[in-house]
Amino acid sequence: MTTDTPADVRVTDAWSQIMEWLADYTPPSYAALRLGAHDRDITALEEALAVSVPEELKALWRLSAGENGVNGSGLMLGNWALMPLDAVIEVHRRQMRLRSSGEGAAGDVGGIEGEEAPASWKPSWIPFCSRTPEDTAYGLYLDGETGEVWQWTRFAERVRKYKSLPAYLELMAISLEAPVTGSGPEKPGMLGGALVWGPPSDEERRDQWVRHLGQAPPRHPAKTLGAIREALPVDDRTEFDDQRDALDLADSEAVAAFLDQWWGRAVQAQEELEDQVAAALRGNVLVSPGRTLAPEYEATLAPAIRHRPPSLDDIRSALRHESVRARFNRDLMNAIPPHYPALLLRWWDLARLMADPRGDRAVRAVIKGRDASD
Question: Quick check: 143 and 132 in contact, CB under 8 A?
Answer without folding.
Answer: no
